Amino acid sequence: MVDLLDLLEVITAEPTAAPQAYTTATNWTPTQLDEAFAAVRKRAEVDGTTLGLLLWSHMWTTSFATRPTEGAHPMEVVSAHLGCECPRGTGCQCVTALVYRAWCGDCAHWTAIRDEETAAVEELHDHCWPGWLDLPVGGTADREDHWTQPGAPVITDRSGSGTRAVPGRSPYGGYDLAAPDPS
Fold it and tell me: CB-side exposure of 43: number of CA atoms within 13 Å?
């Protein structure tokens, strides 16, 4: 049940400048996109329509499984669900589509839209940390100063289902990226 104060808050809230629908524009920060999503969520709470909000809004939001890195080139990942809006249990055969893009706070650079989170993160590393693929796998010794600054990535040897790029897992606060598959 919505009380009158919630309704008043929604009515008098300052409109957010960020788009309140899916966009391919690159002039918004992840914080602005999250604020726009919060505004849509608040309106949906008043309307009683929050069920499936991520599915039917198709809006970019900070990926639930990541957090921003810190240091040089702070990176953040956002995701949008562009697929099925059918309620669960209806026998739906729709294909879902979760897409990602990554953003660097220093460069204000967005990656292209990718269908895998790790692909977006790796693309951003190509932009922000050129040469990251040449880092020694599993090693942090004998690195140039550039590769030991806060936010620097590491590469570890992982395979199978454990190859997701993990933010903040590097000893330097950057991403821990899986070594490329040699095949």
Answer: 15
